[in-house]
Amino acid sequence: MTISKLDKLNKLKVNVISLGCSKNLVDSELILGRLGEKGCILVSSPKFADIIIINTCSFIKDARKESYDVIAREAKEKSAYQKLIVCGCLPQLEKRKLFYRFPEIDALLGSSDFYRIDEAVEKILQGERVFLVSTPKFIYNSGFSRLVSTPPGYAYLKIAEGCSNCCSYCLIPYLRGDFRSREVEDVVKEAKSLAKMGVKELILIAQDITYYGQDRGKSGELLRLLEKLEKIKGISWIRLLYLHPGHFDVGLIRFMRDSDKVCRYVDIPLQHTHDEILKMMNRPPFKVAQTLIEKIREAVPDVTLRTTFMVGFPGEKAYHFEKLMKDVENLEFDWLGVFTYSREKNTPAHFLPEQVPKKIKEKRKNELLLLQRAITLKKNKEKVGKIFPVLVDITNSDSEWGEGHTPFQTPEIDGKTLFIAKRFTPGQIFRGKVTSVKDFYDLYIQIESE
Fold it and tell me: Can you list the domains of the chain with their CATH numbers?
């Protein structure tokens, strides 16, 4: 696999705006890799570009609004000589309607059609208007070039695409297609290329990485993949994101406990804790998650647990929410994200009665976040005086402070670790002692030798 942070690109100037999740970011990096092979130049601002590419998200209403706003801004500001391409989930959802809403768009590519970006560019330069939106079936492989855009120390490694869980509220199967995973050896090949670049941390991502390989009739594939990734020279940390409680292999707990490289960090979105709501969501009963969490904490006492909850699902009453609050208080997750339910067409939940008013949804979200803030602050204060490894993400000559993250912090999601920057460059790992907590979520750390 050809991977580069920057390469010698020339001629056509391209700017890519990537919206949404880390999985979408990988697609954007593949777009840049594809165009880089064709001799294009990556530019940092749309105003310097010949081609402006917006890779959109459309998971919920807020994500669509952001996508609409960005498209509207670029459509308004672009010159008559610039071309505008919109990719990803929004074209997959709305298809040709986007042409009517934004006549300035020159090309639309669906969520699994981004690999045809060079074809689209060639056609729009010839004056064509391009529509490439197909049923999502594509999954990239290690033969595709990729221009990695994250800080030098870490990179996302997408091991699968799509989802087959069919949660009643979720558009992902409609937008991204059925779950399809890459072959183990192909993922390992890409991981080795990343390691040669100097990447220290691999962040494995998919809509549900615990289902990895099962679409191909192969159980235990995630463990087999981790065994091979662990052996790659230069890789220090392996982080696992988005583990479904119903597919969690107990062997993974033992592997995490015994591994020197797999971070003791479990991101396991639960969505709710009341079985009446979980049943309507088409999610496993809460006991499944509760038992799993107990097993994880028993086997790996220093594990970091992150979860995501949804409030305001149709039919959610005060007693449902009160149980959720009580369970969050008792379980004490290290990190927690909260979404308000977004009513989406093409999902079964769209037709459910008893839709919760927006004001109540927002109130419940704020109450849950306030509760979790106190829990996270308590857990962060418990880290003061302790020593942890830190991966350097950002050092800036204009600031005394650098930013990094520890094994218990996922970059761009959880809190940051702050340190005196002058001795370090991005991509380094050092050990330091936590001295204090900043604004509930971030940590100050002092170099161990100081």
Answer: 3-132 (3.40.50.12160), 148-381 (3.80.30.20), 387-447 (2.40.50.140)
